[in-house]
Amino acid sequence: MFRQALINVLSNAIRHAAVGSEIGIGVTTAPDHVEIHVHNAGEPIPAQHLPYLFDRFYQADAARQHGAGQGTGLGLSIVAAIMEMHGGTVQITSTPVAGTTVTMRFPRLARVDGGEGYGGGIARCLISNGAAARTHGAGTT
Fold first, then answer.
1. Which of these, 39, 43, 50, 96, could form a disulfide with 24 (CB 3.0-4.6 Å)?
2. What crossing angle do the helices spanning 2-15 and 75-85 adopt, rounded to 10°?
Protein backbone atom coordinates (compact mmCIF):
# COMPACT_ATOMS: atom_id res chain seq x y z
CA MET A 1 0.00 0.00 0.00
CA PHE A 2 2.88 2.34 0.73
CA ARG A 3 4.01 1.87 -2.86
CA GLN A 4 0.60 2.96 -4.17
CA ALA A 5 0.62 6.08 -1.97
CA LEU A 6 4.07 7.02 -3.23
CA ILE A 7 3.09 6.35 -6.86
CA ASN A 8 0.04 8.60 -6.51
CA VAL A 9 2.07 11.43 -4.97
CA LEU A 10 4.85 11.11 -7.57
CA SER A 11 2.34 10.98 -10.43
CA ASN A 12 0.83 14.27 -9.27
CA ALA A 13 4.26 15.83 -8.80
CA ILE A 14 5.31 14.84 -12.33
CA ARG A 15 1.98 15.88 -13.86
CA HIS A 16 2.13 19.36 -12.34
CA ALA A 17 5.88 20.03 -12.57
CA ALA A 18 7.27 22.64 -14.91
CA VAL A 19 9.09 21.27 -17.95
CA GLY A 20 12.82 21.11 -17.19
CA SER A 21 12.30 21.20 -13.43
CA GLU A 22 13.29 18.60 -10.86
CA ILE A 23 11.16 16.47 -8.58
CA GLY A 24 12.80 16.09 -5.18
CA ILE A 25 12.25 13.04 -3.02
CA GLY A 26 13.62 13.14 0.49
CA VAL A 27 13.47 10.98 3.58
CA THR A 28 13.92 12.28 7.10
CA THR A 29 13.92 10.19 10.23
CA ALA A 30 13.25 10.86 13.89
CA PRO A 31 13.06 8.53 16.88
CA ASP A 32 9.28 8.15 16.57
CA HIS A 33 8.57 8.64 12.84
CA VAL A 34 9.84 8.65 9.26
CA GLU A 35 8.84 11.31 6.74
CA ILE A 36 8.90 11.08 2.97
CA HIS A 37 8.84 14.43 1.17
CA VAL A 38 8.01 14.87 -2.52
CA HIS A 39 8.64 18.36 -3.88
CA ASN A 40 8.08 20.04 -7.22
CA ALA A 41 8.59 23.60 -8.36
CA GLY A 42 5.54 23.72 -10.61
CA GLU A 43 2.76 26.26 -10.40
CA PRO A 44 1.68 26.63 -6.76
CA ILE A 45 -1.66 25.35 -5.53
CA PRO A 46 -3.86 28.28 -4.44
CA ALA A 47 -4.30 28.33 -0.65
CA GLN A 48 -8.09 28.05 -0.83
CA HIS A 49 -7.74 24.57 -2.40
CA LEU A 50 -5.28 23.08 0.12
CA PRO A 51 -7.89 21.97 2.72
CA TYR A 52 -9.81 19.99 0.08
CA LEU A 53 -7.06 18.22 -1.86
CA PHE A 54 -7.57 14.94 0.00
CA ASP A 55 -11.34 14.89 -0.62
CA ARG A 56 -12.52 12.28 -3.13
CA PHE A 57 -12.96 13.63 -6.67
CA TYR A 58 -11.65 17.09 -5.74
CA GLN A 59 -9.60 18.80 -8.42
CA ALA A 60 -8.10 22.22 -7.78
CA ASP A 61 -8.28 23.29 -11.42
CA ALA A 62 -11.71 22.65 -12.92
CA ALA A 63 -10.35 23.44 -16.38
CA ARG A 64 -8.06 20.40 -16.16
CA GLN A 65 -10.81 17.88 -15.43
CA HIS A 66 -10.78 14.88 -17.74
CA GLY A 67 -8.02 16.32 -19.94
CA ALA A 68 -5.28 14.23 -21.45
CA GLY A 69 -3.10 12.77 -18.71
CA GLN A 70 -5.28 14.14 -15.93
CA GLY A 71 -6.64 12.11 -13.07
CA THR A 72 -10.07 11.76 -11.55
CA GLY A 73 -9.41 13.45 -8.23
CA LEU A 74 -9.05 10.15 -6.37
CA GLY A 75 -5.26 9.87 -6.11
CA LEU A 76 -4.71 12.04 -3.04
CA SER A 77 -7.79 10.71 -1.26
CA ILE A 78 -6.32 7.22 -1.71
CA VAL A 79 -3.02 8.50 -0.29
CA ALA A 80 -4.84 9.90 2.76
CA ALA A 81 -6.68 6.59 3.30
CA ILE A 82 -3.44 4.59 3.04
CA MET A 83 -1.69 6.91 5.47
CA GLU A 84 -4.55 6.56 7.94
CA MET A 85 -4.37 2.75 7.66
CA HIS A 86 -0.65 2.95 8.52
CA GLY A 87 -1.31 5.26 11.46
CA GLY A 88 0.37 8.12 9.63
CA THR A 89 -0.52 11.51 8.19
CA VAL A 90 -0.11 13.38 4.92
CA GLN A 91 0.00 17.11 4.31
CA ILE A 92 0.63 19.49 1.43
CA THR A 93 2.29 22.89 1.51
CA SER A 94 2.46 25.11 -1.55
CA THR A 95 3.79 28.63 -2.08
CA PRO A 96 4.96 30.56 -5.15
CA VAL A 97 8.51 30.79 -3.77
CA ALA A 98 8.99 27.31 -2.25
CA GLY A 99 6.86 25.24 -4.64
CA THR A 100 4.70 22.31 -3.55
CA THR A 101 5.72 19.65 -1.04
CA VAL A 102 3.74 16.59 0.00
CA THR A 103 4.89 15.09 3.30
CA MET A 104 3.89 11.55 4.25
CA ARG A 105 4.65 10.85 7.92
CA PHE A 106 4.76 7.26 9.17
CA PRO A 107 5.13 6.13 12.77
CA ARG A 108 8.45 4.36 13.27
CA LEU A 109 8.24 0.62 13.76
CA ALA A 110 10.77 -1.34 15.77
CA ARG A 111 13.19 -3.32 13.61
CA VAL A 112 13.10 -7.08 14.08
CA ASP A 113 16.89 -7.35 14.16
CA GLY A 114 17.23 -4.78 16.95
CA GLY A 115 19.02 -2.23 14.73
CA GLU A 116 18.56 1.49 15.06
CA GLY A 117 16.68 2.16 11.83
CA TYR A 118 17.47 3.59 8.45
CA GLY A 119 19.07 6.87 7.45
CA GLY A 120 17.67 9.53 5.15
CA GLY A 121 18.32 10.09 1.50
CA ILE A 122 17.30 12.21 -1.46
CA ALA A 123 16.67 11.59 -5.13
CA ARG A 124 15.81 13.93 -7.96
CA CYS A 125 14.03 13.40 -11.24
CA LEU A 126 14.37 15.80 -14.21
CA ILE A 127 11.07 16.60 -15.95
CA SER A 128 11.34 16.89 -19.74
CA ASN A 129 8.34 17.45 -22.00
CA GLY A 130 5.99 16.68 -19.12
CA ALA A 131 7.41 13.22 -18.40
CA ALA A 132 10.07 11.84 -16.10
CA ALA A 133 13.27 11.74 -18.13
CA ARG A 134 15.92 10.30 -15.82
CA THR A 135 16.99 10.04 -12.22
CA HIS A 136 19.76 12.23 -10.80
CA GLY A 137 21.92 11.71 -7.73
CA ALA A 138 20.01 9.14 -5.71
CA GLY A 139 21.63 8.38 -2.40
CA THR A 140 20.89 6.93 0.99
CA THR A 141 22.78 6.65 4.21
1. 39
2. 150
Task: Report how far residue 78's alpha carbon sits from residue 55's, in angstroms, rounded to the nearest whole number.
Answer: 9
Q: How far apart are CA 10 and CA 19, in angstroms?
A: 15
Please report, for the chain, the start and end positions of each structural domain, with discontinuous segments joined by +.
2-111+120-136
Rounded Cα distance, 115 and 95, in Å: 38
Any idea of the CA torsion for 40, 35, 53, 71, to the nearest 10 degrees?
Answer: 60
**Closest by Cα among 34, 1, 28 to 111:** 34
Please write the tens of the pLDDT for every residue from 20-76.
888 999 999 998 999 999 999 888 889 998 888 888 877 776 544 444 555 667 888
- Segment (H or E) for 85: helix 75-85
Q: Tell me the one-letter amino acid at 138.
A: A
Q: How far apart are CA 76 and CA 79, in angstroms?
A: 5
Torsion of CA 47, 121, 41, 72, to 10 degrees: -60
Say which CATH class 2-111+120-136 falls into.
alpha beta
